[in-house]
Structure formats: C-alpha cells, structure tokens
C-alpha cells in the first residue's frame, strides 16, 4: 500500500474515532450549574449564544425565550432547542449544536487523598463516598474524616463527615450528596505523642476508640526501667491550658495527647 494512501486512511480513522468519542461525550455529559456552553444553529449566526448555566437550568435563547436544559445531556439539550425552534415555526429542520466550553459541575478534592484535584460530577446525585473514590480515597497519611464546604440554598455550608462511620456504624445519613462547587478536604490524621521510658517514643496516629494501654502498646510498651503505673497524661483543655493527670489504662486517647512514661522507682 502506498505511504500516502496509508496516511490518508489513518487520518480518516482518527477523524471517525474523534467523531464517535465526541458523540459519546454528548450522550453522557449532563449539563449543570456553572457549565459554560456555546450554542449555534447551522447557517444562522444571529442565533449564536454563549452563556453559563444557572442553578435553575433555565437559559434565555433567541426567538424561543426561556428554555430549561439543566439536567439534560448535551445531545438532549440540542434536540430540545431544535424542537422549540421548529414548533415555533421558525425553522423546518434546525441543526442545533452545543459545545461545552468549560465544565462547571465540578468539585475540588484536596488534602490527604491519593489524587487531589478537580473532578466532574458524573451524576447529579453523587455521594461523598463516591466523590472520594474518584480521588482514590484517603492516602495512608489521611484522616477518617472529611470536611465539605460549599453552598446550600444560597447559604454557606460546612460539614465534617466521619467517613469510616458511614460503613462501620451504618450512618448512611452522613453520606451526603455533593453538588457542583463543593470542596472536600481530607486532613492529616490526629496524632498523640509518647515519650519517656518506652521502647519507641514518638508520635502515632490516634486510632478509633484507642485507649491509654493501646497507645502504650503502639510505642512498644515500657522499657525495663519504665512502668505503666507511672504514666502521666498531658492534655489541652478548652481554655488552651495543658493539664496534667494520671489516666487509667482504659481512658480514651484524644488528638494531641502527650503520654509520659516515668521511670519506676523500684
């Protein structure tokens, strides 16, 4: 086969593939709040419109006025506008084309996740667990909780979600729906500190329902010179003051607790 003919056929293949991909995108992408779109009608430049989708999904289009295309795929929105132009008696067979300039139905997932960034909402009813899955979930350095910031009913919205409890404690009500413009942040996990007569002093992650004895085990336990009977706990109170206490071994550990294992006197 001549080289020129091969290159020509290859170009045709990629052109067809691109058209198929574009058609699939039109069938799949759902228009939502914040999407910037470019609308044209073949051989009618006066009907060209550049607009951004409002939350209501209603846009004002020449000749037909208010039309709701929110929640429709691009292909369905094209058909709806074309049908309105035809039913209004303006055209026999209008060819409407909508191009997505900038997707607006995106969320930001930040912090300690595997793949932080901006993600398009694949569905208008995406839950926070599904959204975090888009970013690969929390990284090994990530917390069990996520903070969701956005707006609801034109008011600032902020909610701290315990992701693990959704599955461990069946708190499905906390698996809230995320919407366009939401920001999800996963912070570093809470840590406690242990030092003194322990095998491995340092900072460690506070696990769920962790107790003093479990925290001591995380540090490798007391050295031959230490004893669990002489543990001191240093915890900051609501006033920001550090308070010293002698905890029981079953007392829960909190974020930023400091455990000091003292040397045994005997």
TrEMBL record:
- Record-annotated Soluble ligand binding domain positions: 191-241
- Share an example GO biological-process annotation for this protein: monoatomic ion transport
List residues of the SLBB domain.
Answer: 106-185
Q: What is its main location?
A: membrane
How does the record classify its membrane topology? Multi-pass membrane protein
Which Pfam family name is an example for this entry?
Answer: SLBB_2
Annotated Gene Ontology cellular components are:
cell outer membrane; pore complex
Q: Domain Polysaccharide export protein N-terminal spans what residues? A: 25-100
| Location of the protein in the cell | Cell outer membrane
Q: Where is the signal peptide?
A: 1-23
- Asked if the keyword Membrane belongs to this entry, the reply reads yes
Gene Ontology terms for molecular function:
polysaccharide transmembrane transporter activity; porin activity
Keywords, alphabetical: Cell outer membrane, Ion transport, Lipoprotein, Membrane, Palmitate, Polysaccharide transport, Porin, Signal, Sugar transport, Transmembrane, Transmembrane beta strand, Transport
Q: In which domain of life is the source organism classified?
A: Bacteria
Coiled-coil regions listed in the entry: none
NCBIfam families from the entry? Answer: EpsE
Family indicated by similarity: Belongs to the BexD/CtrA/VexA family.
Q: What is the name attached to this protein's record? A: Polysaccharide export protein EpsE
Q: Which organism is it from?
A: Methyloradius palustris
The organism's taxonomy opens as:
Bacteria, Pseudomonadati, Pseudomonadota, Betaproteobacteria, Nitrosomonadales
């Amino acid at each position: 086969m001549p080289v020129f003919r091969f290159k020509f056929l290859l170009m045709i293949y990629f052109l067809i593939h691109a058209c198929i991909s574009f058609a699939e995108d039109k069938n799949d992408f759902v228009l939502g709040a914040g999407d910037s779109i470019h609308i044209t009608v073949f051989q009618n430049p006066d009907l060209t419109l550049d607009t951004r989708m409002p939350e209501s999904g209603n846009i004002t289009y020449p000749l037909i006025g208010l039309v709701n295309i929110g929640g429709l795929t691009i292909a369905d929105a094209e058909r709806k506008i074309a049908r309105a132009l035809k039913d209004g008696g303006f055209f026999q067979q209008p060819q409407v084309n909508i191009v997505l300039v900038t997707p607006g139905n995106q969320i930001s997932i930040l912090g300690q996740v595997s793949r932080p960034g901006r993600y398009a909402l694949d569905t208008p009813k995406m839950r926070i667990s599904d959204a975090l899955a888009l970013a690969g979930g929390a990284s090994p350095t990530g917390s069990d909780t996520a903070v969701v910031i956005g707006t609801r009913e034109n008011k600032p919205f902020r909610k701290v979600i315990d992701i693990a409890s959704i599955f461990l404690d069946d708190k499905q009500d906390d698996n809230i729906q995320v919407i366009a413009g939401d920001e999800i942040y996963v912070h570093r996990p809470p840590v406690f500190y242990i030092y003194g007569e322990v095998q491995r002093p340092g900072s460690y992650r506070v696990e769920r329902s962790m107790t003093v004895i479990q925290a001591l085990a995380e540090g490798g336990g007391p050295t031959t010179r230490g004893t669990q009977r002489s543990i001191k706990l240093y915890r900051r109170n609501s006033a920001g003051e550090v308070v010293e206490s002698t905890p029981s071994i079953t007392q829960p550990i909190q974020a930023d607790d400091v455990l000091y294992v003292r040397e045994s006197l005997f």
